[in-house]
Predict the 3D structure of the following.
Amino acid sequence: MNTLPSSPGHREPRWLGWVVLTLAAIVGCLGAKPTAGGWQDASRLAMIEGLVDHYTWAIDDSIFVKPTPGHDPYPSQDPIYQIGTQDKLFIKGHFYSDKPVFALLLAAIYQLWEWCGGPTAWQRPDLFCWLMTALGSGLAYAFAVWCIYRISEVLRLTVSLRLLVTASFALATVALPYTRQVCVHTTLLGILAGISLGAVRLHEAAAAGRTPWGWLAAIGSLAGLGYTLDLGSGPPLVLGVMALTAWRCRSFKAIAVTALAALPWILLHQAINYHIGGTFRPINTVPEYSDFPGSAFPPEALTGTWKHDLGSFLVYVSGLLLGKRGFLLHNLPMLLAVPGLIALWRRRSPYRPELLVLGGWCVATWLMYAALSNNWSGMCVSIRWFVPFLAPAYLVIALVLREWPDRRRDLLVLSAWGTLMCGLAWWYGPWMGQMVPGYWPIVGLAIVSWWSLRRWAPKANTELTLIQTDSQSRQAA
């Protein structure tokens, strides 16, 4: 195994992790836009404003529902938004948004802002939008970047490889453009990055015969919070974390600690959900709540029921990954993660349980959304539902570089083209209603460059390929 442990006399640059976190926070916060970018984020911002300034979960009187001159939170060049957000639910005579726990957490910070003398959303919609975006997406992005760096550190990659993996995640994926507006899936990316780091820590502790109670509570709490942000992928995430805890710890007490850490978030969401909608099912899947005059979301467009015949399902499920909105092709370094996952599994990586749980969660979420939707996650860069997949993918990439360090060049090539693509997407923001400019040429050049690297690389550096068998691996070593 080609691990890269630090030499006994080498002192790790612990300060480097703080530098990574600081730089990521600067990137995330400086890119935050001072306006709502679309109906989706405006709906969440409306609920935050309603909770603090109007003392209600309803969003009827929000500036994001009724924008007025001088208090307009939308870009002036997009007149369609002057009618206010249409991402809303009509329940018992009032309009509401979903994702109430997410709104509640940001509302607590907004309330603190006002107590300290900050202006209200009505007074300064630009400052309100920037603040909520910086906190809701920018800091979640920074936390995710830091977790990827820490994963690489725990796996004992060299400093140069750590920085390569971290920079690739930060700059060459759609995590970057999603920092520019409020999006619950950016927050969910931070949660998955934290769970991935916790899974690696859990593996290390189990190998040493210890039970990391703090990490069990942390990943349980993160899974519970993730449940509140996406009622499609959230329940499988909680079950996956519980299964990983059971496998690694083989202890009922450990399972109980993880479950109890997740439970408060789940109960909080269900209580608020029932208070608003009178149901325990996700309120945005109730057709009656979207059936009102002027609704932009007819029942056939709602996510939550089977949408396809077999042929359309096959086209849609493949298009979610490989089409013009495809998630894999918008995150070019992930092209290394897919064969890398197969290679790690064949090589019987000691991280097989973590790869099974996190990879299985990604596959289950992909298939579930493919079966129960037909709207490509709305008007956004690629598929916003899948943004959290980046964290498990980069755990795979870090493990690949630990086993096969010569693959750094593959990651460099794919990341260079990915940075170009995601830099263009960052310029427009995540709610762009068009393809990334030059999308197909960039994808084509990236694949040709990568193939050329593998085809013409010196033979000595290609002996360990990502498709070799275990016997070939041992012979090459």
